[in-house]
Amino acid sequence: DQQVKQNSPSLSVQEGRISILNCDYTNSMFDYFLWYKKYPAEGPTFLISISSIKDKNEDGRFTVFLNKSAKHLSLHIVPSQPGDSAVYFCAAAQLTSGTYKYIFGTGTRLKVLA
Amino acid sequence: ETGVTQTPRHLVMGMTNKKSLKCEQHLGHNAMYWYKQSAKKPLELMFVYNFKEQTENNSVPSRFSPECPNSSHLFLHLHTLQPEDSALYLCASRTGPNTGELFFGEGSRLTVL
Questions:
Q1: What does the angle CA B76 – CA B87 – CA A73 come to, to the nearest 5 degrees?
Q2: How far is residue B8's CA from residue B107's CA, in Å, rounded to a whole number?
Q3: Contact: B101, A41; criterion CB under 8 Å
Q4: Of A25, A40, B15, B67, which residue is least crowded by CB atoms under 10 Å?
Q5: How far is B18 from chain A (nearest CA, A)?
Q6: What b/e string do you get for A45-56 counting C-beta neighbours within 10 Å, with b at 16 or more?
Q7: Phi then psi for B65, rounded to 5 degrees?
C-alpha cells in the first residue's frame, strides 16, 4: 500500500509560468513533509519542507502548501525556469519507534519549455 | 564536495560475488539511511541507523547486510544478489533524532548479472 502518491508522472510548463506539483498521502500520523528535486545520475536534493502545524511555507520561487484535512500537499514554482526541469519527489516523515522514517512518492517529471 | 559521498558510483557484479557499497558523510549527522530506487518505483527505505545503532530494517533480505562502524560511515555488504536487485542505492544522513531534511549522496548504480 503506497502511503505517498504522486499521481502525475509528468508535467510540462512554459517558462515563466507556474508549475504546480501535487502529492497525496494516506497516513494521518505523518508530521513533516518535504520536496526533493533529482537530476539524472545525481542523488535527490532537498528543496523545501513544511511541518504539519503549518499550511504554507515559502522559499524564493518555491512554495509548499499543506491541506491536512485533504491529506494533500503541493509545490508551486513561480516563475518556472528551464533549469527547474527535473524529477520532483514528495516525502512524508513519521516518528516510529524512535526513528524518523521518510516515505517517498514515485516522482513527477517536470519539463519547463523555453 | 558533497556532504554525503558514496562509492563506488557504478558496480557490476555476478550473482555469486561479494561486494560492498560505502557511504561517508561529512555533515556531523547522527542518523544514516539506505534507500533503494528501482525504475518507476518510489524510493524504498531499507535501513536506518541512529548513533551507530540500527533502528529500522524494512524487511530487507539477508543478502543485504548493513554495517555502521561510526556515525560518519555506513556500508552495505552485498552477497549472492539476484538480477532484480539491480537498482540505484542511495545513502542519506540527517541530524538526529528529530525531524529535518535528509541529505542524499549521489547513489551507487548496481547491476547484477
A1: 100
A2: 8
A3: no
A4: A40
A5: 24
A6: ebbbbbebeeee
A7: -130, 110
C-alpha closest to that of A93 among A50, A48, A33 = A33
How confident is residue B22, by pLDDT bands cut at 50, 70 and 90? Answer: very high
Which pLDDT score is estimated for A53?
A: 94
Quick one: pLDDT band at residue B41, thresholds 50, 70, 90? confident
A113 φ/ψ angles, rounded to the nearest 5 degrees: -90, 130
Positive or negative, the CA dihedral A67, A70, A75, A76 is: negative
Q: Summarize the confidence of residues B64-82 as an average pLDDT.
A: 95
Alpha carbon of B68: minimum distance to chain A alpha carbons (Å):
16
Question: 10 Å Cβ neighbour count for B2?
Answer: 15
Query: What are the tens digits of pLDDT across the range A33-83?
Result: 999 999 987 899 999 999 999 999 999 999 999 999 999 999 999 999 999
Spatial CA neighbour of A14 closest among A82, A60, A83? A82
One-character DSSP codes across chain A: --SEE---SEEEEETTS-EEEEEEE--TT--EEEEEEE-TTS--EEEEEEETT-SEEEETTEEEEEETTTTEEEEEESS--GGG-EEEEEEEEEEETTEEEEEE---EEEEEE-
Interchain pair A43, B105: CB under 8 A: yes
Residue from the list A36, A99, A107 with its beta carbon closest to the beta carbon of B55:
A99
